[in-house]
Design goal:
This protein is mainly β and 163 residues long. The protein has a single domain, classed as Lipocalin (Beta Barrel), CATH 2.40.128. Helices cover 13% and strands 51% of the residues. It has 2 helices and 10 strands.
């Protein structure tokens, strides 16, 4: 009979990386289609007024289990596309899958919904460099406070509905 010995790495970086991987996969949550319906409040057009160019988000329903969104920036007469997003329900998970133009080889990065508290939705991917967390907090039907964060960095996006 063979016996296998397993020893944990003694280097702090390796231990930290192993711990992060274990935590990232152990925090899976289970959601229902009814939970997915709650986030449909996002459909429509939103604006984030900024001095260096307004940011817009447009969201529409693609199917009963999928929404699609696009964000772009208007600077003068120029339109700069920032990202497209697929938000969908699949196998008891709600996934936020953005493709940021000019980043990650223009491949989607998956963020899983971790919590819903009233109209506040928190998506996470702790293995991604930045952001690790995307939050959409609908304060009213026409007011959305979104932010992305990771490490000690946070970027706020206060939006208001334009239709």
């Amino acid at each position: 009979m063979r016996t296998f010995a397993f020893t944990l790495p003694t280097r702090p970086r390796v231990l930290t990386a192993l711990l992060m991987v274990c935590c990232a996969f152990s925090q899976d949550s289970s959601f229902t289609r009814a939970d997915f319906k709650k986030i449909k409040i996002i459909t429509g057009n939103w604006i984030n007024k900024r001095t260096n160019g307004d940011i817009y988000e447009h969201w529409e329903r693609n199917s009963e289990t999928e929404l699609k969104g696009i964000s772009y920036k208007l600077t003068g007469s120029d339109t700069v596309f920032l990202e497209k997003v697929r938000l969908y329900y699949q196998g008891k998970e709600i996934i936020y899958a953005p493709v940021a133009y000019g980043q990650n080889n223009e491949k989607q990065v998956l963020f899983k919904l971790k919590s819903i508290e009233q109209n506040r939705f928190v998506f996470e991917n702790l293995l991604h460099d930045f952001p690790k967390r995307i939050v959409y907090d609908f304060r009213t039907a026409d007011s959305l406070y979104a932010y992305i964060e990771g490490g000690d960095k946070r970027i706020n996006y206060p939006y208001r509905r334009i239709n």
